[in-house]
Amino acid sequence: MADATTATTTSTTTNPSSASPSDGAVTSTSSSLPEAGQRGSLVIKDRVVTTIAEAAASRVPSVLRSGSHLNPLSRSLPHADVTLTPSHARVSVDIATSYDRPLYEVAGEVREAIATAVATYTSMTVDAVNVTVTSVRTDEPRVDDVDTDGEASSSSRHGRRVL
User: What InterPro entries does the record point to (predicted)?
Assistant: First the structure.
């Protein structure tokens, strides 16, 4: 029959406040860590800031999403271009908007939303946000699409159907 041996282990715990480095205890204090800039680096790519800017612009009321990724000749809106330095960003954004509000109000809200989002998510200083309104859309039928009784016609003189 095989001998069974039983191993017993003893565990000791040390109070971190009473442990000294000579006891072999590992203590971690915030003063022993190097400064954040000495531990490594953070690189934020242009495409990340572009995505943040486009998402922020899309959340502004009256800003419309348009375009298609399927057609290489059309550009999806909102569309942002960014210029970055290690701690600063400049953003140019093209937007489409509805005709329900003054353009300067929409542009101001887009500017503020982008500056806030980029600063919040990247800690970069936003030097400028340039907004270009490339398209304004109305939901109202065009004048030539309306019959004399005020109802939208089923077709216009351009051969389009108004639904």
Answer: Asp23
DSSP letter assigned to residue 51 = H
Whole-model pTM: value is: 0.63
Homologous superfamily of domain range 42-145: Cation efflux protein, cytoplasmic domain (3.30.70.1350)
Q: Which amino acid is at 65?
A: R
Tokens of 74: 């059309």
- Name residues whose C-beta falls within 8 Å of residue 107's C-beta, 6 or more positions apart in sequence: 95, 131, 133
Per-residue burial over 73-111, b = 16 or more CB atoms within 10 Å of its CB, e = otherwise: eeeebbbbebebeeeebebebbbbbeeeeeeeebbebbb
Domain ranges of the chain: 42-145
Among 115, 151, 109, 107, CA closest to 131: 107
* Tens digits of residue pLDDT in 122-144: 999 999 999 999 999 886 555 55
Q: Can you say whether the dihedral through the CA atoms of 22, 26, 31, 36 is positive or negative?
A: positive
Q: Nearest-CA neighbor of 69 among 56, 79, 59, 60?
A: 79
